Amino acid sequence: MTVASILAEKGRDVFTIVQDEKMSKVVDILAENRVGAMVVVDSNENVAGIISERDIVREISKSGASVLKQPVAAYMTRAVISCDEADTVDQVMGVMSENRFRHVPVVTDGKLTGIISIGDVVKRKIQQAEKDAEDMRNYIAAG
Ligand code: AMP
Asked: Which domain holds residue 109?
C-alpha cells in the first residue's frame, strides 16, 4: 500500500497558509475543517513549514492568547519532513513514530501534492488487517 493509493482515495487537497498570516487564521481554518495541521507555503507554492495544533497549544500555554495576533512564521516548524508518492504506508508510519508527529506532506518534483495524517495511516492499517483476517477465514474454509 503506497502514499499514491491513499491520495487516490482521499484526494489531494491540503490546507495551506502563507507565513505572514496571523495565527488566529490558522486556528479558524483548523477548527472549521476539523484538521490538525496546515502546510505553510511560499509564493511559489513551495513548502516553507508546517504548523499544527500542538504548536498552538504549546505557545498559548507559554505566552497566552497574544500568540493569536502573531504571524505563522513565528511558530511554524521549518524543517519539514515530507514523503514521496511511492513511499509505503509502513514507511510513513515509521517516519511519524520516529519523529513523534502526525502529519507528513507529500512532495512530488518539489511541489506539494497531498498530505498524509496519522488518521489516514490508521484507517488503511485497519482495512488491511480486516482483509488479512477475511483471506485467512476463506483459506481455512476452503481447506
Ligand atoms: P503533529 O503531531 O503533526 O500535530 O505535530 C507535532 C509537532 O511536529 C509540531 O511542532 C509540528 O509543527 C511538527 N510537525 C508536524 N508534522 C511535521 C513534519 N512532517 N515535519 C516536521 N515537523 C512536523
From this structure: 3-142
